[in-house]
Amino acid sequence: MTSMLFDRRSLLRAGAAGLALASLPKQARAQGLSGTVRVWTFLGADGQSPREVVLREIIKRFKATHPGVDVRIEAQPFQELEVKFVAASAQNRAPDVIWMRDTFLDLVQQRGALANLDDLLSAEFKAKALPDLYPVFVEKSVFSTKRTSLPLWPSPAQAIFYRKDALAELGLDSPPLTWDKFIPVAGKLTKGDRLGFGLPTNDNSVSAFINIMSGFGPSIFDAATGQFNVTGPEAKEAANVVRQLVANGALSPTLLNAMGDDIQDQFASGRFAMVQAFAPRFQQYKQIAAGYSGKDLAVSAWPAFGTNPPAVLLGPYWTVGISAKSANPAAATAFVESLFTEEASLEWAKTAGLVPDRRSVLQNPYFATPAASDIHAFTALLSAPGVMTFPQRMPNITKIFPVMNTALQELIGTKESVDAILGRAKSTLGW
């Protein structure tokens, strides 16, 4: 019979081995992970945009640490990500990892399609990384006690990009931050083939109309319902701003079907002096500048109404979650955590010009260099007094932006009354 007795030396060796294993970094101990991690994102595996370049580097490092894991990027149209994911989850063919906009989190989590990250994230991540993220973004992803996702690329989302050289023509360093002063300046910036202001009027992932309304502050959203008063005085004032921008030539009455990509391309060619743009694309805007110098690109908050502070609406922004039906939750969690390492945060900043997810990374010497000046402009917006988010629960989220974009097109391209246009939008939403 085999003896079950161990001498003292054997016990000490076994104990030492156990302590050594416990002291190893979590990544080293996790090298046994294997299988496939399917990732749905709008980024392409072979794309050349700054964010796609960084994502490839993160995957490369992840696979070096976890050679048994195959990360498959399955790029999807960003406008369809959340709805397609919900359908895929119901049909048991969902990916392991999903990129989602914050405005769709409630829709997705109501379908039970997301795992509770608090059950999956490592103790090390919870202790070190989670408290290092921006609280205003992190807290919105928690529904009751369920953490549905992690926010990626903290930014003011839809900001105003402007050309410093164009503003300098009027003796200004930046756009005015109240609508009563912004409107005449935007009109004066229209010159020759250049328009003073450009808005995405047909991009159903954003709403320029709501961004204009945000100048009244967070009170535009009802705390109980998440709705805003489509025919209320704030909405009518926002509509009047649009009409004034058309009347003074800042907005073109014929530019009615512009997507965000259209605005980006036309801004690059010098078509606009100022535009509504997605903040994480700032570096991309600079790189493709052709009709002006990319060095002249700058960012601004949205103008306010009355005595309200300039508006910084944080959303829609991107978050990352894990499918409740993931076939490989351990590897999926390890991959998600790899997106938020200090090294990844520094890369998002250096290569893509993004505010680092990890706040402590801002202490890196890089952020004391001129190369990081744009990032400081964005971090200043994140701490501005006019910061606000979309409500956590926003009804009719698949309809709100298309409906309000239709109203915006009608305000720009027709002479129909403001009351009639907004009344029709309210009726379509069923509010």
Write the CATH fold name of the largest domain.
Answer: D-Maltodextrin-Binding Protein, domain 2
User: In what range is the share of β-strand residues?
Assistant: 5-15%
Strand tally: 12
Average the pLDDT over all residues and give the rounded result: 92
Q: What would you call the structural class? A: alpha/beta
What is the percent of helical residues?
A: 40-55%
CATH-assigned homologous superfamily of the largest domain: Periplasmic binding protein-like II
> What would you call the shape?
globular
If you compute it from the alpha carbons, what radius of gyration comes out, rounded to the nearest whole angstrom? Answer: 24 Å
- The level 1 CATH classification of the largest domain is Alpha Beta
Main sheet makeup: 5 strands, mixed
Q: State the domain count.
A: 2
* Structure annotation, total helices: 18
Uncertain ranges: 1-30
Write the layout of secondary structure elements.
Elements: H1 8-23, H2 26-29, E1 35-41, H3 50-65, E2 69-75, H4 81-90, E3 97-101, H5 105-110, H6 123-129, H7 135-138, E4 142-143, E5 146-147, E6 150-152, E7 158-163, H8 164-168, H9 179-189, H10 208-213, H11 233-247, H12 260-268, E8 274-278, H13 282-288, E9 297-300, E10 312-314, E11 318-322, H14 329-338, H15 342-352, H16 373-382, E12 387-389, H17 397-413, H18 418-429
